[in-house]
């Protein structure tokens, strides 16, 4: 299985633990991710609201490069990249005018956009292409006893619920169950983490993070699993401020791929787990194998 | 062949109707009249404000008498609406009613166009076509076909029951077919009815018993119509009677067999209590069921499924021997003249809106589930309780669940506001709980309904205006711990609210039955896009359909409350009775006929006829059209290789001249 891979800027910086765990996990499952050459910023969600036209051109360049790279689906792990690239595809499909503008801009760089490369999320690939049975087969260290709150964030299923339900996504729940973890019923799984408001309007942003963390703790979760670099950062980085304002809500937030790596027997230090502010406790002792 | 010269001196009268502004707003009616007035054969050409009015019709008669008009063309609305009106006017003045042609310049022109000049030109072209055509019209006679006096009523809810009783009281024989084991429909599940709060059972069950007792009603429960043949006045209906494994004639409803069943405890979800209680494989749907006859569920009965049961039920019924586990389905056929469909509705499946948590949170219930809880004969004996048996201290109602919603159903289900307010009052009465109703708009237009709303406000029921975003169980404050939380924008206060409650009631809307499309095809009717059966005219023929002799009543036509359902049922019964008491129906003469000298006897037409109206005379080797069955669809006319099949009112010369008329203007 070969996919083109658009990491986006987060996975090279703030969210490098995501890439550090994603790549070995995918390799482990026989999935080859070929990083696009000379990719650029997706524009993130902010640029779309500043200048839709330029934002579309910026994102479309990555799509054009992916088309040129080969007939593979494009995988992008960051929720913002995933949303922006898909949104751009929709914009180009729906508006002839936008298509023309983007084609002109891409043309000056010797690129074209045909619109035939699907933009996929790793969750989608893991559950629908690789399959939970294959994932299960690879588990050597089941996450038995580990209570995990699955947290999807707002962007992967909204507004385009392409591979999961918009209100109650379950792909990560099923993936966690396949790893042997105990999935905590987490009704806030698609609620906002505060996004960039934690920086620009902390009063509002931090409160949203706090709500998520508090509820995960209330439900007895040992750890929160996420798929978005910004969510991971927001839920991990502000515990001092949160504790000062509302009381302690310490609970580690890790990427689903990190948990997968652990279950596959990949050492924690090779999965970027050392980068968490709130460290995850070592896994409870493995249960004794059942007598044959 | 018909010789048009027999038509003699053709003098055409043309009348264009303004229909107030409906036509005149988009078509220059005087200009059309002026244009037609100059066409050959036209003796009189006029425009008039309302041709269907008495003075409008009188105008035609006057011209026939004064100007020797012998053909009439009216350009106005759809022939569905007023063809009869004008034919009658023509006939009243002494002309054959088929020397008339109607031009639809409203639905086909003024209502659908936006350019006045072009719409006027289109009206001229259509009028020109009719002027050319009417010249060739022949004098035709309608035929009278006797009407079978019996009536079939499909569906034994309150609408079907009322229609059946009305007809039976009027001396007509009625077959009432219901697919469930008992009649009663949704109303049988209700506790009290709004806005009077009178007991639903007290007003329904006497009517159910009356159905059973009425000598003019044949009641077939647990039965379905599988085939309908024929036409108005003469339908042949085939009904499948599912085996209930009980001989209805012998069972007295003592229920000894139920007590004796090998299953000591009731184990299976009870349909009548919407799964809130359990029943055995042998059961009676509810205490007031009509007929008072038990029924065996073949999917659950140990003997039927495995053949390995002690058959204690048969033992218990030893003296009457009413249980017959070998019973097979029965197919029965009846002849009726009219059919009334009262097949009801289905409730919206609340799981389609996952954010409201139905199926995820046990204490999120539908309005019908709460209805069963407040009913004294219900699974809790009338106690409103949470799943763990506690009484709720606070209850939230969410309105418009699956109604007025672009993502699910766009229509208003009409009854949920009132139904919820009724339930809210009953909940307060039973438990004293705080009740909050989340609504979009309160729609309480029925008689006594606004007063009921007023009372609800005064009784302390809280109303919050805004569509609920979600139901969740995550707690922000200590008060929310262990509660369900309703998150909604309060659009009057302009704030987002979180309201913690113990129980949430989803006021689920009404939808067409899941099999509405099959039923529609079975009875040869139309459905609107939402699946509701389509009435012939939304105002003037609300219980008729486009199939003569088939009427609709109750919620199969659209959401409505009990009084409206009963009003429709009575209306449908009256429409059927009017046809029956006249004794005959007049059949349109637009049927196919065969010119025998040209028929080669190839039989191509015989299997093509969708109404089985063409037979074959083996002795003479000619096809024969049964005019009583022919619907005038024209399929055989087009298909006949020798051109020997013709159709009255659609003769070749009529159609060709009509086409020439349109083209001549263009």
Domain module count of chain A: 2
Strand order of the largest sheet of chain B: 10-7-6-18-29
Number of strands of chain B: 34
- Say which CATH homologous superfamily of the largest domain in chain B is assigned: FAD/NAD(P)-binding domain
Number of helical regions of chain A = 12
CATH topology of the largest domain in chain B: FAD/NAD(P)-binding domain
Distance between the termini of chain B: 30 Å
What general form of chain A does the structure show? globular
Would you identify the CATH architecture of the largest domain in chain B? 3-Layer(bba) Sandwich
Distance between the termini of chain A: 35 Å
Which structural category fits the helices and strands of chain A? alpha/beta
Which CATH class of the largest domain in chain A is shown? Alpha Beta
Percentage beta strand of chain A: 5-15%
Q: Radius of gyration of chain B from the CA trace? A: 31 Å
Q: Biggest sheet of chain A: strands side by side, in what order? A: 2-1-3-4
Low confidence ranges of chain A: none
Secondary-structure element series of chain A: EHEHHEHHEHEHEHHEHHEH
In this structure, how is the largest beta sheet of chain A organized?
Answer: 4 strands, parallel
Q: Provide a count of the helices of chain B.
A: 19
Topology, number of strands of chain A: 8
Features:
heterodimer; A: 292 residues; alpha/beta; Glutathione S-transferase Yfyf (Class Pi), Chain A, domain 2; Rossmann fold; 4-stranded parallel β-sheet; 47% helix; B: 666 residues; 5-stranded parallel β-sheet; 34 strands; 23% strand; disordered N terminus
Note down, in words, how this protein is organized.
The complex is a heterodimer of chains A (292) and B (666). Chain A is 47% helix and 9% strand. Chain A has 292 residues and is α/β, with parallel strands linked by helices. Chain A folds into two domains: 2-120, Glutathione S-transferase Yfyf (Class Pi), Chain A, domain 2; 137-275, Rossmann fold, CATH 3.40.50. Chain A has a four-stranded parallel β-sheet, with helices on both faces. A four-stranded parallel β-sheet of chain A has the order 6-5-7-8, with helices on both faces. In chain A, α4 crosses α5 and α6 (122-138) runs parallel beside α7. Chain A starts with a strand and ends in a 29-residue tail after the last helix. Chain B folds into five domains: 4-142, 3-Layer(aba) Sandwich (Rossmann fold); 143-242 and 329-344 and 513-585, FAD/NAD(P)-binding domain, CATH 3.50.50; 256-316, no CATH class; 348-511, FAD/NAD(P)-binding domain, CATH 3.50.50.60; 592-647, 2-Layer Sandwich (Alpha-Beta Plaits), CATH 3.30.70.20. Chain B is globular, with a radius of gyration of 31 Å. In chain B, α7 (158-169) packs across α8 and α12 (367-374) runs parallel beside α13. With 666 residues, chain B is an alpha/beta fold. Classes of the chains: A alpha/beta (292), B alpha/beta (666). The A-B interface holds A 165, 167-168, 187-188, 211, 215, 218 and B 354-355, 360, 470, 472-476.
